[in-house]
Structure formats: C-alpha cells, structure tokens
Amino acid sequence: MKYIGTPNFEHGTTEKLGVLVVNLGTPTAPETRAVRRFLAEFLSDPRIIELPRWLWNILLHGIILRFRPSRSAKAYREVWSDETGSPLLSISRQQEHALRQELTERFGDHVRVALGMRYGEPSIDSAIAELESANVRRMIVLPMYPQYSGTTTASVFDAVTDRLQKTRWIPELRFINQFCDHKAFVQSLAASVRESWDANGRGDLLVTSYHGIPKRYLTNGDPYHCLCHKTSRLLGEELGIAADKILVVFQSRVGREEWLRPYCDETMKTLPQNGIKNIDVLCPAFAADCLETIEEISGENREYFEEHGGERYQYIACLNDRPDFVSFLGDLIEQHAQGWPEADAARDQQLVNNELQISKQLADALKENAPVKA
User: Fold this and answer.
1) Alpha-carbon distance 318 to 316, whole Å?
2) Which of 191, 301, 320, 354 is deepest in the core (most CB within 10 A)?
C-alpha cells in the first residue's frame, strides 16, 4: 500500500493548527449529469441508507439514479446563481473566509482553515491535503451540523479517518460532534429571529424545521431527534416564548418508509385549518442556506401553507456568515484547541494585550487627573 507522504517537508518549519470545516456538499452544476454524479456518491454512503448493499445498489442504480437526477437538477436550477453558483458552496466559502479572519485574530499566523465537502467538491481529501501542505500537525474537524446524527456527523468522521488511514504522518486530531446546545449558538439563532420580528413583524407561531431521517434510525439509537427538540426548547427559552408558540417539524423525507414526525409539508397544509395563518419558519439544523431551505422551505412549503389558507409565511434565513455565529465558531475552536501550543500562545498574547490595555487606561486616567501648570 502506498501512503500519502510529505516529501517537501523541511525540518524547523513552524507547525500549524488546522481547522477542517465540512458541510454536506453540492453538485458542480445544476445539470442532470452533474446531479447524478453527486447523488450517486451521496446515496452510496451506508450512513445515509442503512439497507443491505446488494438490495440498495439494485434500487439506486436500477431506479433512483434513472429518474431522480433530472428532477433534482430542475430544483437546483431554481436556486443556482450565475455569479456564485451553488448557494451552499458560496455561503460555505464565506463562512470559511470569515472564520479564517476570526481565528487569525485569535491565533495569529499559527492557524489554517480549509473547506471540504462530504460529497462533491472541494473534497475532504483535497482540504486535508491543503492543510498538510501548510504544515498542519494538529487538526480540529468542524462538521457544520449543529445536531449530531450518524447520517451526517458520523459520516464526516468516516471520510476524515478513511483519508488519514492512507496518510503516512497523521496529525493530532480533535473532532467536534455537535454544538446545538452551546449558549452562544442558541443566542445567535434567537438574535436572527428577533431581527426578523423587528423587520417583518411576528407570527402567531415559530416553526422550526429540521431535516428528517428514517424513524428506525431513532429507534436504533441515533440521538438526532432528541437534539432537534432540545435545540427548539433552548431557543424558545432564549426568546422567552411559551412552549406552545414554537413547533418542531421534519422535512425532506423520501420513499415510503416512516420518517421522523410531524412532517413539515403535511403540517403546512393543516396549520391554517387550525386557525394558525401567520407563521415564522426557521431551519436550525442548517448552518448555511441551501436547496433544502431555499427551494423546499422558503418555496415549496410556503406554497402548501398559502394554498391551504395561510396568510403570512416568513422564512428566517440560516445563520450563514453572521458575525455572532462566526464569533461563536471561533470560541468553539479555541475551546477545543486548549492544551495545544497555538491555544497557549493565543492565551499568553491575550494576557499581554489586556495588560497593555490596562496600562493605557491608567496612563490616560493619570493625564486627566494631572495638575494644571500655571
């Protein structure tokens, strides 16, 4: 077996802290062929579809990849931008850039940030190679999934460790499993809701829509369902609203198997019949707006709601590259870097900066209180 090495390594080169930011991924173009290639990789992941491989391969290649890519390509064309392309990739790049700036302020030149997608491009392999070329010897993996699930977070772990199993000189590794219950994350979500209320008015109900998974994953021990409800409970508490003013639903189900309930599309059709015609909708499981939030939630489910008597449907954007969210991610990385040289250096520099600031404040105070010369 040939292992991936670092033949250009030079002894004495300063080691770096690397942050690998990972999201789900996107096709390279809103065209049937590109979407088929993306879906083939995505749906071949055993973490996504837990069926016997022989059976699933027959269904995937015999039926699904024959018909679904063209329908999905049409949906992608509705959200695709001529200037920036895929919204998920464009926003993920913005997050990468903002987080790099945030961490440079904290760690100086001792940190590197790279973006990898679990499926599609830029790949996790290419992102790790980018970090390796920058002499990263300590790496933090940040899956951009607030709630842990075997279908998402664990799949990123699989891809990262698969790559590292082929690596000759493996870096020290720390992996962030989830961050939905961190106070600063919940505060950022709440701030986005308040800003929408201030700008657009407040609905009678706040609907929090999460990407669904098959119900049997929950019964087999996946904590995702519980973490979604926890996120919405903490958000409601932060907003100071009653428990019956915030609702959890699940979107994006496929196939005939039962998924987590209540289903978002069915809920949108029944809310107006129950007298709820003015709602706000938020997607706390998505760190960046994408096909599922723009086309499915802001578009398709809005139509269901309005067609069945709904009057006001306000979609609240994902956190994307909001400064408070990026600052929280910086805190999260700094927390997970504790004990590593880069974190120690950042802490020492912060102490020096604090001492300099205090000295300046004392000097300014002495100048203000200095006696006036005749």
Assistant:
1) 7
2) 301
